């Protein structure tokens, strides 16, 4: 009984060094594993970037300057585009409408005034006068009928038959404008036809310049 108790006690004493060694070895293994794990978590993976430095936050003044620069660039681009469009438009040739075409179109529109004799005569007279000024350079709108016909008599801008037709046309218009005559529709249509005929017949007319007179040579005096 005593010997068995002693053996058990000795066996327990004999097993204590073995348990201690296991405990020490386990602690060392734990420390090694902890160190390895810490090193693995602190390492930067090859596919990720490292932490960057602090980000500089711009001030309000810098933001306003940047916005002003952007607006200035946009304004310059808009100005360049506008200048380019204007230059392109100015380069395009403008179509000039001949004076006779303008006169024909206006005379056609004047037919709507046949019910107003005075206004009709004033309108068709002004149309023909403007046509003569644009086509031949005659100062018809700024002259009275008498002044204009007097100047036209000394001009080679129109043929004699056209001068007679113009005198008849302007005189008929003046009767309705100033003499308070009340022409009928047939007379007004006749005046309109005379104005249109004058435009049609003179549209292709090329004025003949007056001949230049060369002064005679004086005989040279012999010494």
Task: Provide a descriptive summary of the structure in words.
By secondary structure, this protein is an all-alpha fold. It has a domain at 99-202. 67% of the residues lie in helices and 0% in strands. The chain has helices at residues 2-42, 60-91, 99-110, 117-136, 145-153, 160-177, 185-202. It is rod-shaped. Mean pLDDT is 76; it is low at 1-16.
Outline the secondary-structure elements.
Blueprint lengths: L1 H41 L17 H32 L7 H12 L6 H20 L8 H9 L6 H18 L7 H18 L21
Helix pairs in contact: 3-4, 3-7, 4-6, 4-7, 5-6, 6-7
Describe, in short, the structure shown:
The chain is rod-shaped and about 135 Å long.
Low-confidence stretches: 1-16
| Mean residue pLDDT | 76
Largest sheet: none
Cα-to-Cα separation, first versus last residue: 191 Å
Helix/strand/pairing class, anyone?
A: mainly alpha
Helix percentage range = 55-70%
From the spread of the alpha carbons, the general shape counts as rod-shaped
Strand-residue proportion: under 5%
Helix-strand string = HHHHHHH
List how many beta strands DSSP finds. Answer: 0
The total of helices stands at 7
Rg for CA atoms? 56 Å
Overview features:
disordered N terminus, 0% strand, mainly alpha, 7 helices
